[in-house]
Amino acid sequence: MGIRKLGYVGLNVTDVDAWIDLLGRTLGIGVTQAKSGTEEVVLAELDEFKYRVALYRSTVDTPREVGWIVDSPSELDRLARRLADAGFSVVEGTPDEKELRGATHLRWFTDPVGYRVELAVGEAKARTGVARPVGGQPGTTGLGHLVLASPKVAELRELYESVLEFKLTDYRAPSLFFLRCNSTHHSIALASAEEPSIHHLEFDHASIDDVGRAYDRAKANDAPISISLGRHMNDKAISFYVQNPSGFHLEIGCGGIEVGEDWVPHDFGVPNVWGHHHTNANPFAQAQP
To answer: Which parts of the sequence belong to the VOC domain (predicted)?
Structure first.
């Protein structure tokens, strides 16, 4: 009970057209146009629900909100009380915000880094299947996880584990932690960095063939592949990464494991079984003995 999954992410972006091109032509992800109040928003359709990523035109590239889906109104009330007891100010979402997200209930607070974190009840099914660009079938099945890099890892762990009731799945000492809110290996990871940012968002795919087709399109369209095809050591997912127009990574992956209640958190050592070669220096790399 409580938070069920990662629901959506909103981004302020300076080049919406470049995002649309990357999502459509390269990754096979369709988009729709919407309005929230007076703002125009581009919504990325990763599955049958209304959207998973919202792009807001802006003069800066910054995270705007991270949205988590909560089981029920009573669980939303319970989590809001836990947040208030922990010193967070919880605010009711506006009618326009609820409508855009397809939520029946919406509340939000500001995390220790300064990001807006939303808790939503309800997901609006907008379609029976996703209308993808030519060559985009089959493709994404949903939004998998995000990785937040921050100088306040300890405070974020306290929020997500002690207040929001996420569980630690595994970690790499000294400062990279993978947390879950369901049976999926992780829905969020927290990493130490001098400046706060989203390190990456992961888009789930149904099969290695889907990931491979996206990889072929990325290479054919000269998309900036920032981390090559590979398999992670901890969740066993096979994926590659592209750098998006806002400067962070999108992970295109499949095959991540699920874990049970008897799972024991541990240091998983090396980051990859094979592959995942970085174009630029890996900020979370460790020297191996």
So the answer is: 5-122, 142-255
> Edge to edge, what strands does the sheet with 176-180 contain?
167-172, 176-180, 188-192, 140-150, 197-205, 249-254, 238-243, 225-232, 272-275
In order along the chain (289 residues), what is the average pLDDT of each group of 10 residues? 94 97 88 90 91 96 97 97 98 96 97 97 77 59 95 98 98 95 97 94 93 92 95 97 96 96 94 94 61
∠ CA 11-111-90 to the nearest 5 degrees? 100
| Beta-strand pair 116-121/62-70 | parallel
Longest alpha-carbon distance in the chain:
56
Residue 231's H or E segment, with its range, is strand 225-232
- The domains spanning 3-121 and 140-275 adopt the same CATH topology: yes
CB 179 within 8 A of CB 161: yes
From the list 27, 25, 33, the residue with the least C-alpha distance to 56 is 33
- Under a CB-based contact definition with an 8 Å cutoff, are residues 246 and 11 in contact? yes
Task: Look up residue 112 and give its two tokens.
Answer: 């220790």
Domain boundaries in the chain?
3-121, 140-275
The structure tokens 């390190």 sit at: 199
What 3-state DSSP class applies to 75?
helix
CA 77 to chain centre: 24
Query: Which amino acid type is present at position 101?
Result: R
Q: Which candidate, 32, 213, 203, 37, places its Cα nearest to that of 127?
A: 32
**CATH architecture for segment(s) 140-275:** Roll (3.10)
Q: Are 188 and 68 in contact (CB under 8 A)?
A: no
SS3 of residue 23 by DSSP:
helix
Q: In what order do the strands lie in the sheet with 53-57?
A: 30-36, 39-45, 53-57, 3-13, 62-70, 116-121, 105-110, 91-92
Q: Which CATH architecture has domain 3-121?
A: Roll (3.10)
Distance CA 51, CA 58 (A): 19
